[in-house]
Design goal:
The protein is built from 11 helices and 12 strands. Helix 5 crosses helix 7 and helix 6 crosses helix 7. The termini are far apart. Bound molecules: heme C (HEC) and copper (II) ion (CU).
């Protein structure tokens, strides 16, 4: 009993609880096996050569060695093949982890000395616990209020630094219901070791039941709408294009043309920066009149505002665009879209010299209506 208890608490290899776990382990065991094989082989050959080729008499002169092409080719080609397997396998696993699938469920995480605060889009909040449905791709958007933390779920083989002042993302798909451990994997002060929690992977029906038990304050987006009004963002950002700021409806996931000629995609990080440091990237055709909200909004309120702005679009669109937030992709994205699309959508831009393309306007019009109905 006692030994069983110990084993359960110090498992040599954690459970394989997510879709990437198998691949990570496969790669890990392959690299370990190759390393072990060559360590043994090299030591064995050294010992064998010690004995086989030892000097047998004081006067013995060694035979000159001419070299062997066969040998050279063998010990070049085999290690090259093995190393390529590691490289390709590693790249494959890395890209799988770095690129969330398109249809993710977004959950927000704020780290803080010494706890994990979680917000669900439906409005549920939890601390040091994360409830998720099984077989569903979950994307975490994470930040911290103080120092660097790291969100680590060993059973899922995923770990990601959580950095102050920016969003990092990570995704997983849990494969079996159960309880899994959550750690902070970045030393973050006195109670770092206590910054732990539990992931509850539930059957979808159980998850729905759990969801309906919380969320007294309404969805994350509706909480964000309230913050949006409390901070008077709506005085400048109106959906009728009569405000002094750009229309935010349908903005999320779309290309934005900024002053200086660059075009970038409005992802979570862009929205965050637009609120905290509006002058860093000015939207084409607008004056730098937006005040900074640095220090006036908490990380959690920021996530609520972002959830609200994300909700200001046609739901179908939002879903599709939801996954384009990995840095590699955001950088590539703008090149493939007409650069005028973003500017064209900013109705009411005082000195906008963008020609309004009908198509670009069309894509956003339904989004606006979708919002009103909410
Ligand atoms: C005084 C008017 C004003 C207020 C108040 C204001 N904004 Fe802005 N906002 C602007 C203007 C003007 C721009 C465009 C210039 C720029 O990029 O700073 C802008 C840009 C933005 C953008 C980027 C939009 C885009 O199309 O790329 C976001 C997001 C945004 N604001 C959110 C907010 C939020 C959230 C609040 C409230 C916390 C807020 N704003 C309050 C005027 C305002
Ligand atoms: Cu920590």
């Amino acid at each position: 009993m006692n030994s069983l208890f110990l084993l359960r608490n110090f498992p040599l290899f954690p459970d394989e609880g997510s879709t990437v776990a198998r691949n990570v382990d496969g790669l890990f065991f392959f690299i370990t096996a190759v390393s072990a094989f060559f360590s043994v082989l090299i030591v064995a050959v050294i010992i064998y050569f010690f004995i086989r080729y030892r000097r047998r008499s004081e006067t013995e002169a060694p035979q000159p060695i001419e070299g062997s092409n066969k040998l050279e080719i063998t010990w070049t080609v085999i290690p090259f093949g093995l190393v390529m397997i590691m490289f390709l396998g590693g790249a494959y696993v890395y890209f799988t982890m770095a690129r969330p699938p398109r249809d993710t469920m977004d959950i927000y995480v704020v780290g803080k000395q010494w706890m994990w605060k979680i917000q669900h889009p439906e409005g549920n909040r939890e601390i040091n616990e994360l409830h998720v449905p099984v077989n569903t791709s979950i994307r975490l958007t994470m930040t911290t209020e103080d120092v660097i933390h790291s969100f680590y779920i060993p059973d899922f083989r995923i770990k990601q630094d959580v950095v102050p002042g920016r969003y990092t993302t990570m995704w997983f798909k849990a494969t079996k219901p159960g309880k899994y451990q959550l750690f902070c994997a970045e030393y973050c002060g006195t109670n770092h070791s206590g910054m732990i929690g539990t992931i509850y992977v539930m059957e979808p029906a159980d998850y729905e039941a759990w969801l309906s038990g919380g969320a007294a304050e309404g969805s994350l987006a509706s909480q964000g709408q309230k913050v949006f009004q409390d901070l008077a963002c709506n005085t400048c950002h109106r959906s009728d294009a009569q405000g002094r700021g750009p229309v935010l409806d349908g903005l999320f996931g779309k290309p934005v043309q900024i002053q200086g000629g660059q075009t970038l995609v409005a992802d979570e990080s862009y929205l965050r920066e637009s609120i905290l440091n509006p002058r860093a990237k000015l939207v084409m055709g607008f004056e730098p009149i937006m005040p900074t909200f640095q220090g006036q909004v908490s990380e959690e309120q920021l996530l609520q505002l972002i959830a609200y702005i994300k909700s200001l679009g046609a739901p179908g669109e939002q879903q599709q665009q939801g996954s384009i937030n990995t840095p590699q992709q955001s950088n590539q994205r703008p090149t493939s879209v007409p650069t005028s699309a973003a500017g064209a959508n900013r109705g009411g831009a005082p000195n906008s010299n963008q020609a309004n393309t009908g198509a670009a306007n069309q894509t956003r019009t339904p989004a606006r209506q979708g919002n009103r109905e909410q």
